Amino acid sequence: MKFSLIVAVVLLALAQGSFAQEAADLERLGQYFMDLKNKMTQELTDLISKHDLKTHAQTFLDDSKTHLEPIATQIQDQLKSVATNVEDQIRPLTANVQAQIQPMVDNFQRQMEAIMQKLTEQAKAIGN
């Protein structure tokens, strides 16, 4: 019986020591995660402060401009070519339309002059 009591006391002492060890391990683990969080926060802050976003944006825009300028020049040259072709095709059409419309415009002008002359004569007749 004494032996059982001694074994029970030893087991309780070992269990208590084991729990104390686990608590210390948990505290160290918690401290490790806290240090890891602080380190990541600090590194992210340093990264953001070191890399100026404005500089990155300007660099990106400059690079894009450098890549797009030759393409824009090609498109502009193609548009000039298309505009010249369209102008060459439309010029005869406009001359043809103008030739067809000009007699109508001349006729309209004569009619308007005749109306103005009549109105002038009527106004003179009323004024006398």
From TrEMBL:
<keyword id="KW-0732">Signal</keyword>
<feature type="signal peptide">
    <location>
        <begin position="1"/>
        <end position="20"/>
    </location>
</feature>
<protein>
    <submittedName>
        <fullName>Type-4 ice-structuring protein LS-12</fullName>
    </submittedName>
</protein>
